[in-house]
């Protein structure tokens, strides 16, 4: 080119950034003979952000503020900074960027507002996220999706569903991202009716049931106990990817259909994508839930030797539980000792439960020391250990465990469950008395318990998890 203006320089720099050649883009940026405008500055800042190089990104941004180019950041620049902070979970820097936006009165368009909402949600500041969202005069689908996605990721599933209904009331049409998040909320809440509505909506609106939506549907139906519907969606979906196979394998495994789960895995090995570590969590869970001991040993060995995958805590947890329940306590204990990663309290607790079942007090002693010496012992496992000691009359050890629980101030979070009745999601806490129908619920519970006793049911209180002396 005989003459290269700002546009041509910006285009070539943006092209190199887009193809991931950030250093070549930086070299050209430094060579520019013409004044560098906000477009090339922002393009390069965005490149470092997508690369995950926050130091270079921030350094370039500060350089821009004091450069002789006399260029000030615009909304696009701030979106690039916020997106990098959100994707890399650097919320401290994200908050500093938001303060910079306020102080310098950078105009808040829809895209920048959405980026701020996403950042606030990911750093847990729900109040600011909602306040910013509520202040948007013309809320776009992107803004709605950012808020719903953030609520789902934070585990605020009921609120996410309410936002979805509010979005529909505002006549904003959902897209694939909306539906995937709503289905994820339905799966967590067990809201089958709403999940079905979403499925019907997809068909009625002629939306393409791609593999991402199919995976969300299979997950929702599986967690709501509708395995037939989950299997139908799975079978009808073409071009199945590893996520869809994993979801189907896990769904069948958790409902005790171990053989069916392994059959899906066999199909995956024959015609599907390569298995990953999540696949083997499902496979080993299938063996665990169905008591397939030898199959579990074989699959764990194949994962390590054939697939060359490094076992994670979740894989060891499945194997320890499988072996422990079957009475192979020594083998399970040896596996824990040879783990390539440090065992967590869940693994120790799983083996401790097996010690309770098989009344192996000697091994329970060893496991108890591991649990009690951890920085944050699980209260449930402490109670279990205390009750194991109580069952054999070791009251000094019972007192020792109780004393440790009190000294460390270990508390148990309240259990919570949901149920959907006539399209309405009801939420319950342990010993809940807030629900409007709590009195009737407790009366029916008492009636059912009495009927069971009339029919000859005798509860077995051996090793029951008792809260002894306030534990």
TrEMBL record:
Gene3D superfamilies: Tetratricopeptide repeat domain. GO terms for molecular function: RNA binding. One of its GO terms (biological process) is RNA modification. PPR repeats lie at residues 5-39, 140-174, 241-275. InterPro entries: E_motif, PPR_At4g14850-like_plant, PPR_rpt, TPR-like_helical_dom_sf. It comes from the Eukaryota. PANTHER family: PENTATRICOPEPTIDE REPEAT-CONTAINING PROTEIN. This is Pentatricopeptide repeat. It comes from Macleaya cordata (Five-seeded plume-poppy). The keyword Repeat applies. The keyword Repeat applies. NCBIfam families: PPR (TIGR00756). Keywords: Repeat.
């Amino acid at each position: 080119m005989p003459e290269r203006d700002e546009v041509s320089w910006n285009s070539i720099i943006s092209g190199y950034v887009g193809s991931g050649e950030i250093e070549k883009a930086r070299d050209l940026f430094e060579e520019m003979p013409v004044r560098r405008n906000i477009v090339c500055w922002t393009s390069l800042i965005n490149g470092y952000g997508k690369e995950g190089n926050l130091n270079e990104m921030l350094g370039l941004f500060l350089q821009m503020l004091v450069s002789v180019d006399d260029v000030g950041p615009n909304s696009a620049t701030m979106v690039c900074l916020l997106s990098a902070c959100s994707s890399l979970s650097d919320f401290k820097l994200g908050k500093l960027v938001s303060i910079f936006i306020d102080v310098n009165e950078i105009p808040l368009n829809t895209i920048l507002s959405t980026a701020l909402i996403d950042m606030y949600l990911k750093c847990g500041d729900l109040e600011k996220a909602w306040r910013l969202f509520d202040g948007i005069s013309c809320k776009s689908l992107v803004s709605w999706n950012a808020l719903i996605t953030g609520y789902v990721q934070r585990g605020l599933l009921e609120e996410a569903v309410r936002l979805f209904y509010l979005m529909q009331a505002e006549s904003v049409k959902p897209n694939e991202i909306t539906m995937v998040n709503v289905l994820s909320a339905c799966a967590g809440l067990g809201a089958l009716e709403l999940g079905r509505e979403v499925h019907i909506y997809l068909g009625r609106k002629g939306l393409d049931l791609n593999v991402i939506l199919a995976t969300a549907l299979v997950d929702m139906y599986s967690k709501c106990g509708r395995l037939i519907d989950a299997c139908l969606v799975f079978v009808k979906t073409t071009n199945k990817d590893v996520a869809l196979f994993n979801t189907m394998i896990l769904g069948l495994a958790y409902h005790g259909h171990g053989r069916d789960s392994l059959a899906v895995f066999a199909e995956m090995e024959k015609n599907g994508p390569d298995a990953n570590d999540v696949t083997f969590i499902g496979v080993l869970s299938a063996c665990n839930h169905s008591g397939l001991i030898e199959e579990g040993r074989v699959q764990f060995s194949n994962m390590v030797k054939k697939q060359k995958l490094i076992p994670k805590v979740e894989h060891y947890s499945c194997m320890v539980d499988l072996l422990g329940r079957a009475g192979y306590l020594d083998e399970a204990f040896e596996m824990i000792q040879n783990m390539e990663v440090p065992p967590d309290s869940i693994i120790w607790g799983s083996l401790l439960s097996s010690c309770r079942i098989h009344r192996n007090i000697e091994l329970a002693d060893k496991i108890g020391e591991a649990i009690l010496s951890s920085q944050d012992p699980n209260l449930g496992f402490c109670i279990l250990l205390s009750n194991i000691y109580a069952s054999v009359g070791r009251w000094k050890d019972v007192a020792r465990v109780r004393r440790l629980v009190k000294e460390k101030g270990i508390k148990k979070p309240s259990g919570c469950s949901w149920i959907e009745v006539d399209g309405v999601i009801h939420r319950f806490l342990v010993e809940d008395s807030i629900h409007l129908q709590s009195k009737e619920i407790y009366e029916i519970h008492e009636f059912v318990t009495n009927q069971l006793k009339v029919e000859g049911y005798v509860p077995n209180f051996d090793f029951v998890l008792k809260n002894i002396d306030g534990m």
